[in-house]
Each structure stands twice: as structure tokens, then as C-alpha cells.
Amino acid sequence: MLFRSNTGIQVQTAALLISSAIFCIVSGCSRAIPDRRRAELDSLRQTRDWFKLRDAVESGRADPHYRALVAWMFHDMDAAEKYADEVLQRAAPGSDDANQAHYILGDIYERWGLYRKALSELQVSRQSSGTPIDGNRIALLSAIAGFPPQSVVARSYSKVRWNADHGIPAITASVNGNRADFFVDTSATDCVITQAEAERLGLRVLPAPGFSIGTASGGVDASVAVADELAVGGFRLHNVVFVVIPTVKGGPKNIAIRALGLPVLLAFQTLRWNRDGLFEIAFPAEAADARRANLCLDSWPIVQADFQGVPVMAQLDSGANTTHLLPRFAKEFPHAVPAGAGKDTLLEFGASGAFQRDATTIPEVRLRIGGFDWLLKPAELMDGEIESARPWHAKIGSDLFSQAQSVTIDFRAMRLSAR
Fold first, then answer.
1. Rounded-to-integer distance, Cα 17 and Cα 6, Å
2. Strand-strand pairing, 168-175 and 206-215
3. Contact 126, 104 (CB under 8 A)
4. CA nearest 270: which of 58, 84, 75?
5. How would you label 57-81 residue by residue, b for 16+ Cβ within 10 Å and e otherwise?
6. Looking at residue 282, what is its pLDDT?
7. Is the peptide bond preceding residue 378 cis, with omega within 30 degrees of 0?
8. Which residue of 6, 185, 204, 343 lies most exposed, with the fewest beta carbons within 10 A?
9. CA-CA distance, 215 to 284, in Å (whole number)?
């Protein structure tokens, strides 16, 4: 998540590194389909153009490992597990296809809260493929392998009030009976809390040897904790895992980082917030149909957008208070970056301290997302090394959402809509 203004804090889990591991794991190919067809699918996979890969897989012949990959990206976990198991029945142990299947199964089981099974699958994938980044993820899973799985004990449509805490949507939740406001952060791969806040809420913090949190300003060691119960309105969850980070150094005063990440948001299944301060969860979802989906999950939610009639992809980050463009945008749309565009330096804070980031200021950019036309005026084009590693065109923050009357995210239908 990203908080940015004159005072801001950035905290990310290891999602960028995990996301990079996806590229490493899926870079192999199957020999069961013609070379030209395989080359087409592998090209889309390597550039992580998941929406185009979905369309290509749906429109023609594709082996189970491609179908497993598409089902996984579009959060159809039952189908992804089915196809991954089918791959393992056919593929030679240690092959690229087998390693991908183990990796996908590991992520599926982690989303389901089956941490020990997830750990086992990722260890097999790591040992066979030598993917180095999984070491950090394995350290986290090793620390929580003995925890019971997160479970929904009361699925109840609920309406609560939300406020814009430092520009980020925040709602009140109860953790083990203690109330606190939590940021709603779609780009947090885990629920996150600072050490001080974990202690205040009565959570028992446990070590996670070898696990660290990646931030744009560096890495910091992290711990883990589990909440016996977390409730939002009438919606109740048991055994919610939190990644516990040190108190932020040098950041703005009175910032208590508490974030509900994807494990909880996916459990809600649906969420909607509007300008009137109403936040709704667990309302009826639309029917799942991957062909209509404009969201996928590549560690973070990725939304399909439209720029001047051309499909583009953007990371959906409700935990950021600013929207910015990424280097891929400038590479593919150089005409949209005026000659002599202004330069800016932004001061931000990460969990390991303060840092600066360079940006190019573009007068305006219009994107169409979820049936709504959004205006970035001005648009900040980030130039940093971390941004260059992201294969998307933009990162959408909460500032953009304020242009709509309401924003709806449906993690069953994998759709974002606004009006």
C-alpha cells in the first residue's frame, strides 16, 4: 500500500518478489500443442498479458497447464486445482510443467488457509526449479504452517461507515473483541499490522525466521500473529493471520498501520463503497464468467482498462492514495508523454525509512475502467527501478475512485464496476 502526500508511508508485502517468481515458474512450455500455437500462448504468459492469454485459451486448443494458469489468475480455484492435478498426472517430475503445477497448488492452498499443504507444494516447486524468491515465502509459510485455516463463521451482508484515513478507505473491525480502524488494501497480499498495534489489540506475536517485508525503501524483518476472530458488521472470520512489521521509522506522527489485505477481502467476496461514506460487504455476487472478467490476480488485483481504444492493465491498489502511470505506459504510448514534460521528486516513507522517487508530470490522461471514464489530471509517470519491474501500465489508487459515486469489486465474478 502507498500513502503519499507531503507525509506518506509505503509498506508492501513481498508480493512484487512473489509476482516475479510467477514469471520464472511459468516460463517453461508444453510439447503437446503445435509450435506456433505454443509460441503464441507462451509469449502472452511471459509478458503476463493475462486477459489476452485468457482469450487465446478460450478460443482454441490449450493444454491443461495453460488452463490451470488462466483459472488460477482469474480466481477459479476449483478449476485451477483440477487442471494442476491433471498436469501432475501427465508431466515428468521436475519438469517445467510440473513445477508450475506445484506452484499453482501452493498458492491455491495458501488462499484457502491450508498453510502446511501450501508449504509442501512450494517446497517441491522450489527444490525442482531453484526459484530463489520462494525462500521468503516459504519462511512465512513455515511460521504459520501450524495455524488453523482462516474460516468464515458468519457470512452476513453488512453495511458499515468508512472514512478516508490519509486518503485510504478505512473501516472499523473488531479483533478478538477490540475495535480498531483498518485500511482496506487490495494490494496487500497479507493482512498487516505494526508491532505496537498488535500488542494493543492483544495479539500474540510469533517469530518468522528468515521472513522479511519488501518495501520501496528496503527490507525489514517481520513477525506473524493470528487473530482468533475478526468481525466487520455481522461478518465474522476465525483465525486471521497478520504479518507484523516494526513501527515505521521517520514517518508521519499518529500513523497506526492496520490493513485488511486480500485474505480478508477475498473472504468478503464482494465489497462496495460510495461517496456517502457507506461501505458494503458480502452482498450477492454476480455469476462467475471468466470471459466477462475485467479483474485477475497476479499477486495483486489487476484490472483491464482502456486508453484511447487500446486495452491496458493496471494494478488495483486501494491502499494507495495516489494513482500513477508506470514505465510500460510510456514505452507503448510515447505520444502521450509530451516533449519537455516536467520532472518531479516525491518524498516518501517506507518501513525502513525515507526515500525519494522520480516522476514525470503529464498534463492529463483518461482511462476507461469498469464502465466509467476516469481522469488523471495531472498524471504522474513514475521512473524508478521498482516501477520498471512491474509489467503493468498504471497503478490505480484511491484518489481516482473518488471521482465515482460508487465503486464495486466482485471477487467471484472478478469484475470491477463504477458509476
1. 28
2. unpaired
3. no
4. 75
5. beeeebbbbbbbbbbbbbbbbebbb
6. 98
7. yes
8. 6
9. 36
Type of residue at 210: G
Residue appearing with cell numbers 500462448: 41
Please, how many CA atoms are within 13 Å of residue 110, restricted to the half-sphere of its CB? 23
* All three cell numbers of 135: 525462500
102: number of Cβ within 10 Å? 26
What are the backbone angles phi and psi of residue 90, rounded to the nearest 5°? -100, -35
Query: Which residues sit opposite 391 in a β-bridge?
Result: none
Query: Which portions of the chain are predicted below pLDDT 70?
Result: 1-33, 129-134, 214-218, 248-256, 346-355
Per-residue pLDDT, 248: 60
508521519: which residue's cell?
Answer: 252
Q: Which residues contact 295 (CB under 8 A, 6 or more apart)?
A: 74, 301, 302, 303, 304, 316, 409, 411, 414, 415, 416
Amino acid at 318: S
What pLDDT is recorded for position 32?
Answer: 53
Termini Cα distance of the chain: 24
How many C-beta atoms lie closer than 10 Å to residue 136's C-beta? 22
Count the Cβ atoms, other than its own, within 10 Å of residue 172: 16
The CA distance from 87 to 67, in Å, is 10
The pLDDT value given to residue 61: 84
> At residue 370, what is the residue type?
G
Alpha helix stretches (DSSP H) within 210-326: 262-268
> Is residue 85 within 8 Å of residue 77, measured between CB atoms?
no
pTM score of the predicted model = 0.90
Residue 77 identity:
M
Chain-centre distance for alpha carbon 18: 10
Task: Tell me which amino acid residue 14 is.
Answer: A
Using CA atoms, how far apart are residues 233 and 267, in angstroms rounded to an integer? 14
Tell how strand 353-362 and strand 342-350 pair up. antiparallel
- Helical H runs in 91-191? 96-111, 115-129, 134-144
**Residues 203-207: contacts with CB under 8 Å, at least 24 apart:** 203/175, 203/176, 203/227, 203/242, 203/244, 205/244, 206/143, 207/143
Residue 103 contacts residue 91 (beta carbons within 8 Å):
no
Q: How far apart are CA 198 and CA 258, in angstroms?
A: 9
Which sign, positive or negative, has the C-alpha torsion 140, 195, 251, 191?
positive
Q: What are the pLDDT digits (tens) for 36-51? A: 888 999 999 999 999 9
Residue 19, Cβ density class (10 Å: 0-12 exposed, 13-18 middle, ≥19 buried): buried
Which pLDDT does position 6 carry in this prediction? 32
Query: Quick check: helix, strand or coil at residue 353?
Result: strand
304 forms beta bridges with 313
